[in-house]
Amino acid sequence: GAVVSQHPSRVICKSGTSVKIECRSLDFQATTMFWYRQFPKKSLMLMATSNEGSKATYEQGVEKDKFLINHASLTLSTLTVTSAHPEDSSFYICSASVTGGGFVNTEAFFGQGTRLTVV
Amino acid sequence: SQKIEQNSEALNIQEGKTATLTCNYTNYSPAYLQWYRQDPGRGPVFLLLIRENEKEKRKERLKVTFDTTLKQSLFHITASQPADSATYLCALNTGGFKTIFGAGTRLFVKA
Lengths: 119, 111
Known about the structure:
The structure holds two protein chains of two kinds. By secondary structure, chain A is mainly β. Chain A has strands spanning 4-7, 10-13, 19-25, 32-38, 44-51, 57-58, 67-73, 76-81, 90-97, 108-110, 114-118.
């Protein structure tokens, strides 16, 4: 299957600093990637849809100035948590769907996730 | 409002038995439904997709049913193994590539 690589897997940062999380599609091009946030024993909550070459589409209640998304190429999307606070501590996961190449374009491939802890 | 509901309580079964997980949804008319497996601290992994015009889908020891009248999907793992222990997520597509997930059901298979 297609591979999505997410980095870093874990990060600890101080309150007030910014953290960047990268999501790469390794063997396919992804015009659209998705960023999710997951709290313990809860479902994945879609934060935003990242579109290559254009602005991200944010879900209701997600602050776009707080969670900056950049999708500068067909294989890379980044999520930057700005001025992080302890309540931003969570598990962040990206995904991408594959179009063409024999894949069912509705199947999503997920990164490994990033555990963010803000202290 | 739109909802996806999965059993919040963990499911404990004995090795070799069939595990059955339930996914119910309201206020959706999805064209298809997906099941994913998620291990602790990892991203979900796609397992199966079933379309609205399909009643049943199988893949090795996995079977999924989809009842659009009841708005329910059942996910079965036959001859379960301890390695099947994980959280299983139900997901619906709400248009384009956008996917909404249930909270998942944790499965424990005891040897």
